[in-house]
Amino acid sequence: MTDLFLVHESADRQHWTSNGRRYNIGKLYRWARQNGHEVRVLPVDRLRAGYERTHTDEEKGSERFWERAERAGDEPILVVVDEKKRWWTADGNHRVALALREGRESIRGYIVWERDLPASAIEPKTRGPL
């Protein structure tokens, strides 16, 4: 398997927001790997709702959208499960979309519980323009 951070170079510039906290995606991936989270096989249907809410029909119809999905390839996605046991794709919506388009039943990814996410991955709040 290719090292995730060589392929997914932009992870440290991406964020996932939950309950008013912004998490750095790169830090979440590193935390998951360093804390023994294994890459699992996840059912694509369970991830469909998050993908459909995240992207507009216009985005899903663009060639750029599908190019980005194909570029990410088979790298694991990052799924966060909240206290209500809902699954959220923190990183990997393009890969989920591609899997749905290709009719695949599963995709590889890390699953982490929101309650376990490290404070070290929370980005400091930034002030807007003055």
Structural description of this entry:
The protein is 37% helix and 23% strand. Helix 3 packs across helix 6. Strand 1 and strand 2 form a beta hairpin. It has one domain: Conserved hypothetical protein from pyrococcus furiosus pfu- 392566-001, ParB domain (Alpha-Beta Complex), CATH 3.90.1530. With 130 residues, it is an alpha+beta fold. It is globular, with a radius of gyration of 15 Å. The protein starts with a helix and ends in a 17-residue tail after the last strand. The N terminus is likely disordered. It is built from six helices and six strands, in the order H-E-E-H-E-H-H-H-E-E-H-E. The chain has a four-stranded mixed beta sheet with strand order 3-6-4-5. A two-stranded antiparallel sheet has the order 1-2.
Topology of this structure?
Layout: H1 4-7, E1 15-18, E2 21-24, H2 25-34, E3 40-43, H3 44-54, H4 57-60, H5 63-72, E4 77-81, E5 87-91, H6 93-101, E6 106-113
Low-confidence stretches: 1-9
Count of alpha/pi helices = 6
CATH topology: Conserved hypothetical protein from pyrococcus furiosus pfu- 392566-001, ParB domain
Reading off the top of the CATH hierarchy, the class is best stated as Alpha Beta
Strand order of the largest sheet: 3-6-4-5
Give the proportion of residues in helices: 25-40%
- Whole-number tally of structural domains: 1
Q: What average pLDDT do the residues reach? A: 76
The CATH level-2 architecture is identified as Alpha-Beta Complex
What does the overall shape look like? globular
Termini separation comes to: 46 Å
Class of secondary structure makeup:
alpha+beta
Radius of gyration: 15 Å
How many strands?
6
